[in-house]
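fyi for ur records
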Amino acid sequence: MLTPDQAQERAHDIVRRATAAGADAADAVFAADASSEVSVRLGKLEDVGRSEAEELGLRVFVGQRSASVSTSDLSSAAMDALVERAVAMAREAPEDQWAGLAPEERLMHGAAPLLDLADDGAVTPAELRELASQAEEAARSVPGVTNSEGGGAGASSSVWALATSHGFAGAYATTGYSVSASVIAGEGSGGGGGMQRDYAFHSARHRQRLDAPHEIGRRAGERAVARLNPGRVASGAVPVVFDPRVGSSLLGHLTGAISGQAITRKTSFLLDAMGTEVFAPGVTICDDPHRPHGLRSRPFDGEGLPVSPCSIIENGMLETWLLDSASARQLGLEPTGHAARGVNGAPGVTTSNLFMQAGHVPVTTLIEDIALGVYVTELIGQGVNPVTGDYSRGAAGFLIENGEITRPVAEFTIAGNLKDMFRSLVPANDLQFRYGINVPTIRVDGMTVAGG
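which gave:
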């Protein structure tokens, strides 16, 4: 694996070649990764995998015309051919008055923040197998678990570099480790609800920060057993409580609605919401790219701009769009440092470590006044209209009766409109940072539940 300095030089080198070949401006991304994965099932080794890749993506501008190309052939001759092809393609491309590199005066300069995104511990396939085996064994040991879909463990390392023709060059390395287990509880056919599956996993930048594999397995087994013999839900308008595992999807719908492309294309249900109350007072949603060893931390964005923690929603108010340079120009605004860049194509936008701040009440208090409701642990399907905010998804979880989570329920749908859901949303105080997007337990009143 190349070092960050070597990766940065690779990206910088092809940018120099592009400008020498006639490009007015250019930027390039170099990405390299290596990963190992091991899976076991029923105590036996099932699969061992290893992958390594190095790719380079180049974007060139000729006036207001641009083209993007990518390659995994990193020989010098291939680089020259790639540059010639990219410049030729750009000369034939349509003009785009909004396209271009990030504003030069906004580029990040100086030392990047120290985010502790990589460790130096190598993991052998034998060690990964042991982690996967421990997780699966713990899951299968839970009374009521009858079968297994397997345990898995993985380790990866990567380096990402960006260089531009107007003065930016940067790179950083990351590592990642994960352990998972998925098991089945009960007997009989799945159609009658006799068998139920569930899973648990954990991932971390540093191996020492991984949950113990037996804890991950135990969670998977207990979740599967808890879902046995699900009942049905009566249709009606009731409070819906989202487990943190699925509640994070609500923030995904938010970020899609406030992305620069959605706003410039006028395809967002929050099109005119800037500076208005989108959530209830007291709800704050933050993005923190500088979180130490965060799963989505990064020292700069996909265009070379500095990144910093910010509040997207502050006390219920929408504070910012998520803008790359192109969408910012179109809207007459400044880019927000949320640009994301892959090896292929132009930048888009993304958040980093996005989270909803914890509320003030424990989960038991959040649900204690619910006479009848549902606690959702699984969402199915993609029934969300990003233009209108209409929301309808299949779900499974547990019934809430007289303020307590009681019996499992399945095969129902929950529906509403995201604008109404956001305004009525109440967070509990149980926020934990376990994923790329993190939320506490969330309650949304007045949703329509339709039983199967």
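The mean pLDDT is 95. thats all i got for now
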